[in-house]
Structure prediction request, 545 residues.
Amino acid sequence: MLSAPASLRLRARFRLALAQLRRGLTHGAAPHTDADRLQIEAEIAEGARISPGYFALLFCSCGIAALGLLQSSAAVVIGAMLISPLMGPIMGMGMGVARLDARAFERAAVALALGAAVSVAASALIVWASPLKDVTPEILARTRPTLLDLVVAILSGFVGAYVLITKRPGVVAGVAIATALMPPLAVVGYGLATGAWNMAGGAFLLFLTNVVAILGAVFAVARRYGFQPIVRRRRRWEELALVATLLLLSLPLAVSLRDIVVEARETARVRSAIQGVFEGGDQHITDLQVRAGRGGVDQVRAVVVTGRFQAQAERRVAQALGGQPEVQIEQILTADGLPRADPSGGALANRALATSRTLRTTPEQKLRDMLTGVGTVEATQAMAAGRLQAAVRLNRPATLDDYAALEAAAQRFLPEVELELTPPFLELPVIAFGEGRSTLDAGAERRVALIAWAFTRWNVSGAEVVGSASPGPRGPRPRDVRVAEARAQAVADRLEALGVRDIEIRSETPAVSPQDPSVLWFAAVRPLGLPTARDTDAGLDEVAP
Prediction:
């Protein structure tokens, strides 16, 4: 317990600190008279004015941002943010709202709209002319607004307005980086140039969200420092137009907030589901991307560092989430997955195990150690040029997806060799199509690539592709047959591009449609000349553990 004098001293210090904080917020350069406010308002209006230099800076800034995004260079993107003049018109719009000056708001809004159009056009032109058109992590990071983006925009608006009103130009560079207005416009141009309309729409939504958030923050700071509505006759229609414009601009922010809340909730649910599948607490999720809609989770991309490979992890996560989300989990195995010494065995057993690991560090033995408790290595063969082939079998029921994921994880665990894991002969996935469609979507492309991978590992060079379609009420129609043939041909073309030769194509259209016709919208692949398990293992020399 503090004594009475000590308590009084503590309260006095607290009041003094609070007074100093208030004085710091009301900086000496802050406007205290109407003349000061008019000067600051004129400076903000000058920053929102359209000029040739404004467009020149925009073109250069967006060009630098587009090149930085294509190269996935954060340093170049930051350089583009530093020279971007887009913060000026947004400040002018915020001051126009604070002063209820519809004409000032209109001038700033026109400057922002023209600036955004020039930026998007410049980015699209540069991307169209550039040989680099691959999607990079810097581009993907700006394809949709998140909760962090919204918080950053609001804080940047407060800081930007505070810097201009209190005349602290030394913080402008930091505000320019934090607001990040130019990169989303560059991504919009990238989406228009490459036909990625979803990416362009998401990036534009991110830009509008930032604009509205900054505008609201500027309005709050301006009102805090005494910028009141101007007195003007017959301005009722201007006020109504200003309110309608603000409501229109707020619609993207409302959409973003709804999506942000849904995504945050679903991301927490996905994280819990992944942690439940990777039992034992030895997992670490290093990257998690979730796309959620009104019906729940649509798509999950995750990278999990784990000490033990989990078969059917993607299917188990999808079942835990309910529905039919598309789940892709990349498992990175660590040395923690190697068998541990029994604590009850004593120091001698631990020392013996450590010695055996030191002596037995061949890739074959490392692979066996990695699969301890998960699966078995049935045969291995060390090939020339640092290649290693191994026939493996997982203990749990597994699919080809699991074996392909196991090979990718084992390859990262054994970077010193080029690893090829041969799975047992399993059922091939069916390639599904939409109603009346015969083109491969992303999911179908992935299944066809998985089939081609399995053919390579099984040493199968031929395939039979059967396309299917649902008939009409009176039986198969000519267009149904054409759709079935087109589906088979699309799969066959993709398999051939992936190295599968000797492909036979046929179609099947039953006479009567089932109750659910969608079960016939597929193409199936069957291997030709499939070797027996004995023939496959004969080519691999068994290496004793």
Notes: Residues 336-360, 532-545 have pLDDT under 50 and may be disordered. The chain is about 55% helix and 15% strand. Residues 308 and 337 are 5 Å apart (CA to CA). The beta strands are 283-293, 296-306, 326-333, 375-383, 387-394, 418-422, 431-432, 462-468, 503-508, 522-528.
